[in-house]
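User: My notes are a mess, but here's the protein and adenosine-5'-triphosphate's SMILES. Can you give me a structure?
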Amino acid sequence: MPSMIEAKNVWKTYGDNVVLEGLDIKVEEGEFITMVGTSGCGKSTFLNMLLGTQQCSKGELLLDGKPIPKEPGPDRGIVFQQYSVFPHMTVLQNVMAAKAFAKKGLTGYLFGQAKRAAKDEASDILNQVGLSHALNKYPHELSGGMKQRLAIAQALLGKPRILLLDEPFGALDPGIRADMHELVLTLWRKHKLTVFMVTHDLKEGFYLGTRLWVFDKLRQDPQAPGAYGASITYDLPVGQVDKATYEEIDDNLRPVVELA
Ligand SMILES: Nc1ncnc2c1ncn2[C@@H]1O[C@H](COP(=O)(O)OP(=O)(O)OP(=O)(O)O)[C@@H](O)[C@H]1O
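Assistant: No problem, the inputs look usable. Here's the predicted complex:
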């Protein structure tokens, strides 16, 4: 049986800018991959390739042994750091609208039984993310953590097998982040998701993931910063990492100014 996700010598370039080079990886269903790396090294680009909004420039990115579809689908949900919702709609209406769009396209409306089913489904998902008390609130009435809970609810609507998280908790306070960590771990287990999560926080990466990837450039040309791309320089099963390796990764992630 093919791996759920397989990258075979994947490259991504934008014009002369080589962003990713030679990615070769296999990911099995149910893994929780956390991804760290310096700013601009292509982590979001890789997530977008999994989502289907970006394509490889060279190589193959496979889902169940077939090329990933060239557009987002219900099997892949995504949560970004900043999320946009309809400001004039309540929490419940926003989730129902996402359902209607997924079903009927941008002009879609749901009526009768379909509308009632969408409402039940939206309420259930909002309950799972801990927003059952906020169904009738408007986005401007939500805290940062509540907004991200809403974003997660939207991402889960299509019953995805794969959840893509692009620094979803980067803007949240530490206490709220801890609550969100527990939520994500609960949803990952409950829905048997395969998760790919970008984070700037190495500790978060080690806490949440079953496997941690470090994106970095193996070669650099100071005269031509875009000449070489990043690859996955560490692929670590979480829980089996010694202190020295952790500190080495941590040092590499910190900007040069901070180390000076
Ligand atoms: N649509 C695009 N067109 C051209 N260049 C792009 C595009 N998207 C990303 N890039 C470039 O690709 C490189 C990688 O960007 P990407 O956002 O994937 O990095 P990142 O590792 O996620 O960074 P950060 O941690 O800061 O979010 C950057 O040099 C960026 O300018």
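The pocket of adenosine-5'-triphosphate is lined by residues 14, 17, 19, 37, 39-45 (CB under 6 Å).
User: Great, I'll file this with my notes.
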